[in-house]
Amino acid sequence: MKKYVIALDEGTTSVRAGVYDTEKGAFVHRAQQEVGQSFPHSGWVEQDANEIYYKVMYVLNDCIQAVGAENVAGIGIANQRETVVFWNRETGEPVCPAIVWQCRRTGKYCASIGGEVKKQIKEKTGLLPDAYFSASKIKWNLENVPEARKLMDEGKLCAGTVDSFIIFRLTGKFLTDYTNASRTMLFDIRKMKWDEELCEFFGISLEILPIPVASDSVFGTTKFAGKEIPVAGVLGDQQAALFDQGCYREGDGKITYGTGLFMLFHTGEKCVFSDSGLLTTVGYTLGGKTAYALEGSAFNAGSTVQWLRDGLGVIKSSAESEEIARSVPDSGGVNFVPAFTGLGAPHWNSEARGLFSGISRGTTRAHIVRAVLESIAFGARDLADCMIRDSGICLREIRCDGGASANSFLMQFQADVLGIAVNRPQERESTLLGVALLSAVSLGLLSEDKLDGRRVSEKIFMPSPDRVKFDGLYKNYLMAVKRALLSE
Fold first, then answer.
1. DSSP 139-153
2. What angle do CA 282, 131, 150 make, to 5 degrees?
3. Beta strand pairing status for 157-161 and 46-47?
4. Residue 104 · residue 71 · CB < 8 Å
5. How many alpha carbons fall within 13 Å on the CB side of residue 310?
6. Which end of the chain is less packed: N or C, by CB atoms within 10 Å?
7. How many Cβ atoms are within 10 Å of 447's Cβ, its own excluded?
8. Separation of alpha carbons 331 and 326, rounded Å
9. Quick one: DSSP state of residue 350?
10. Cα(355)–Cα(439) distance, rounded to whole angstroms?
């Protein structure tokens, strides 16, 4: 029996793939290619969809050559979410540059959406009107790219997120999965279908959108080295991390510490809507059941450590920040608010900017570094408090991944601030592994009941029992946030 699954992770700045051995439960080969971005105007972010596809093919070929196409059972896909690609249905060629999720060109338009439409967007899609999501990007292309409008009138236009473009180029099928569809601002997350009223509001024809299907579906077949290989299992990148982290039950949560901080909280088979500006999203679908999640993000996490290194030059490497932070018993009363690009939930203020407070003559480099690391944990506390309050569900523990999760000082402080255990796994390639596992289940190589015991913890950070101390530190941080909001 074929035992290898290839997991593909098409990210914002790179494409990665890994060969997962379903018998050993480990990756046996990996490949990676960088992907460029362009910034034609202030706030605009674009990518070349053909470059994405060529890099995808490069890493897939690399992995398939490593183990032989005849031994590959299937390919699973995880991808950057919300990014929009337009292509010709007949040729598969992109019509215009892909508009990346980071792009803010439609920001003013989205800010103007209010009233009943804003209410419908939240009730149906679980999202807030924002340029982050796909709908306004699709609308912009239809209004500003003549070739796109022409192809739509001729019935030859495809518009979708990156997963649907890759699936189309690999298999010829025009499909997307529920997790990616749920990030478009066009998808009813309870009915699991495109919402006709929202599509009409944004001027988007249903005919140009992919067919949404369950995450654990077989999406078609592709051919490598003369062998037909199924494409099975598709997830948005953050949902793939949720799946890998073993968050299969209500009350499970994970944090990905990347450039920003992404927290997803499993709310079971029910939609929980937030009063704190959190997003409601599809976590994954498995065996005919849909798991929902609350999602919140802090715009800056790992980027703050990069800033210490590259912007201020106070550390030589990201790893050095841990040793320096441990060299002092506390931050010496210094607080840092990492609002380089504003503040997300629950503050939602795009004009706020970064702020140090509590600096005295006795403040040292170590206090500054420690305060910056502590700010990452405080941002996660913001999100966790909102999730627990809005859902009424207890958060059992936090499972962590991403680059900054390697920092043991930060993980221990995170546990202390949350008052909840932080569980760090041995394998921290969560996006790749999450989609590898889903693909294996989709193909019948791994049973659902074997998922629970698969994840192996490398270390569990237990919280301090001194709640008064750490709640007090968090209150001091919130006072600094108020100062940052007042200084806008």
1. HHHHHH-HHHHHHHH
2. 100
3. unpaired
4. no
5. 6
6. N
7. 9
8. 10
9. T
10. 44
Q: 393 φ, ψ to 5°? A: -110, 135
E-strand spans in 189-314? 193-194, 211-213, 218-224, 227-236, 253-257, 261-268, 279-286, 289-298
Which amino acid appears at position 170 of this protein? L
Element (H, E) at 408: helix 408-418
Q: What are the tokens at 444?
A: 């019948």
Residue type, position 446, single letter: L
Q: Which of 231, 282, 255, 212 is nearest to 428 (CA)?
A: 255
Contact 431, 241 (CB under 8 A): yes
CA 141, 42, 127, 101 dihedral sign is positive
Q: How far is residue 229's CA from residue 73's CA, in Å, rounded to a whole number?
A: 7
Other Cβ atoms within 10 Å of 160 Cβ, number? 26
CA distance 419 to 413: 10
Q: Which long-range contacts (CB under 8 A, 24 or more apart) does 145-150 make?
A: 145/86, 145/95, 145/96, 147/95, 147/96, 148/86, 148/95, 148/96
* CA dihedral (39, 45, 49, 53) positive or negative: positive
- Which stretches does DSSP call E strand in 80-217? 84-88, 98-99, 157-161, 175-177, 187-188, 193-194, 211-213
CA–CA dist 277, 296 (Å, integer):
8
Q: Decide: helix, strand or coil at residue 98.
A: strand
Instruction: Specify burial of residue 41 (Cβ count, 10 A radius: 0-12, 13-18, 19+).
Output: exposed
Tell me the residue type at 198: L
Q: How many residues does the chain have?
A: 488
For the chain, how long is the longest CA-to-CA vector? 70
C-alpha 433/C-alpha 411 separation (Å) is 21
116: exposed, middle or buried (C-beta count within 10 Å: 0-12, 13-18, 19+)? exposed
